[in-house]
Amino acid sequence: MRLAICGALVFLIACHPHRVGRPAARGDSAAVARMVPLQRDSTDSLLSTPRVIEDPAVIVFWLRAADTLGDDDRASAFDDLRYYTAEVAAALEANDIRLVATRADTIYVALPNKRRRTILLSGLDYPFGYVLVDPGGPERILTGIYSDDDLLDELRAYFDLSPDSVSAVPRAAT
Questions:
Q1: H/E/C letters for each residue in 10-33?
Q2: Which SS3 state, helix, strand or coil, does residue 18 take?
Q3: 41 lies in some domain
Q4: 63-112 tens-digit pLDDT
């Protein structure tokens, strides 16, 4: 009997999942098509959780206040935001700048000595847009819709990127 109990305990312990090394990274949505759900009852709590940014990042935000827009205006704004973000995603990746999506109205920037700076997004001109964050300097908040060219210009200026390092994906001419 004692042997059976010990065997069962060993079996249970062996089946218990263990995280080895570093814990899994947060599931930031790099797939821009699924980046910010429009549904009010989003089950993705990760998008509603305030973010802590430690590295250079572009945060795409879509706050709950955008849900008060008319259906057509909301869908059009969301599609434009998603499209233009997808156009610059390759340039962000090429320059090691994270693309992060959030519906939370608060973002935290990690500072030295385990301190944080708070960025509040509620009460802006538009309840959607971008936050450009380089933890060593001030953030830049871009509200509303920016075309891919305008967004690339903002990225170049903020992150001090050379024009050669930010190459847009060529478009097919028809």
A1: HHHHHHCCCCCCCCCCCCCCCCHH
A2: coil
A3: no
A4: 888 878 888 988 899 999 999 999 999 899 999 999 999 888 899 999 88
Is 40 part of any domain? no
CA 159 to CA 155: how far, in whole Å?
Answer: 6
| Closest to 102 (Cα-Cα) out of 67, 128, 76, 70 | 128
φ and ψ at 61, to 5 degrees?
A: -120, 145
CB 95 within 8 A of CB 159: yes
Write the DSSP symbol of residue 116.
Answer: E
Angle between helices 148-159 and 71-94 in degrees, nearest 10? 50
> Phi/psi class of residue 17: alpha, beta or left (left: φ > 0; alpha: ψ in -120 to 50)?
beta
* Counted domains in the chain: 1
User: Are 107 and 91 contacting, i.e. CB atoms less than 8 angstroms apart?
Assistant: no
CA within 13 Å, CB half, 37: 10
Q: Which two tokens stand for residue 52?
A: 């802590």
Distance CA 137, CA 135 (A): 6
CATH of the domain at 65: 3.40.30.10
pTM for this model (two decimals): 0.70
